[in-house]
């Protein structure tokens, strides 16, 4: 009988990471602020990426929005959309030429909230994407935004 020695810590349960991701989605908090001794921000991001690749994260996001709307109620009569352009010195999949930073790589981030400031959706697009293009092609309550169309 051989003994297996692992240098890694045991995998954190999906339930713990799920709870942390719900906090991120509902509260709009950063991964850093959500992390604690039960789960690091790196673990939250890695599991999020695994779930995105598996197609689970979009469903999780929609469940959070639907549940919040059912329990508390989203006020969608008045929504607010705001955005910013940030530097992307290392490039990335969606980075593009920034119109405000001498053509260096940048990313445009847009956030939609209800009247109380509850995040409904977030879209990242190349910094060169014009402001006249639609951010969401459909209602954020029915589907997640398509960054390719932003």
Percent of residues in helical segments?
25-40%
Count of individual domains: 2
- The unreliable regions are 138-150
Principal-axis shape equals: flat
Largest sheet geometry: 4 strands, antiparallel
Global structural class: alpha+beta
**Total number of β-strand segments?**
4
Topology as H/E string?
Answer: HHHHEEEE
Q: How much of the polypeptide forms β-strand, as a percent range?
A: 15-25%
Overall mean pLDDT score? 78
Output the radius of gyration: 18 Å
Supply the number of helical segments.
Answer: 4
Calculate the terminal CA-CA distance, rounded to whole Å: 57 Å
Protein name: Transposase
Organism: Yaniella flava
Would you give an account of this structure?
With 150 residues, the chain is an alpha+beta fold. It folds into 2 domains: 14-71, no CATH class; 80-149, no CATH class. It is built from 4 helices and 4 strands, in the order ααααββββ. Helix 1 packs across helix 3 (41-54). The longest helix has 15 residues, at 57-71. The N and C termini lie far apart (57 Å). Residues 138-150 have low confidence and may be disordered.
Task: Give the tags.
31% helix; alpha+beta; 2 domains; single chain; 4 helices; disordered C terminus; 150 residues; flat; four-stranded antiparallel beta sheet
SSE map:
Elements: H1 14-27, H2 31-34, H3 41-54, H4 57-71, E1 80-87, E2 96-97, E3 105-113, E4 119-126
Antiparallel strand pairs: 1-3, 2-3, 3-4
């Amino acid at each position: 009988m051989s003994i297996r020695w692992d240098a890694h810590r045991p995998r954190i349960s999906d339930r713990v990471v799920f709870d942390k991701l719900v906090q991120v989605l509902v509260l709009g908090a950063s991964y850093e602020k959500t992390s604690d001794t039960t789960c690091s921000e790196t673990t939250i991001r890695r599991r999020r990426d695994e779930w995105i690749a598996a197609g689970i994260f979009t469903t999780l996001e929609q469940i959070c929005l639907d549940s919040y709307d059912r329990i508390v109620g989203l006020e969608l009569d008045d929504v607010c959309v705001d955005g910013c352009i940030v530097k992307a010195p290392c490039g990335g999949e969606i980075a593009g030429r920034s119109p405000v930073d001498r053509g260096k790589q940048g990313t445009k981030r847009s956030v939609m909230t209800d009247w109380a400031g509850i995040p409904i959706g977030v879209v990242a697009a190349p910094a060169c994407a014009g402001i006249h293009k639609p951010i969401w092609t459909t209602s954020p309550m029915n589907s997640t935004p398509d960054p390719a169309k932003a």
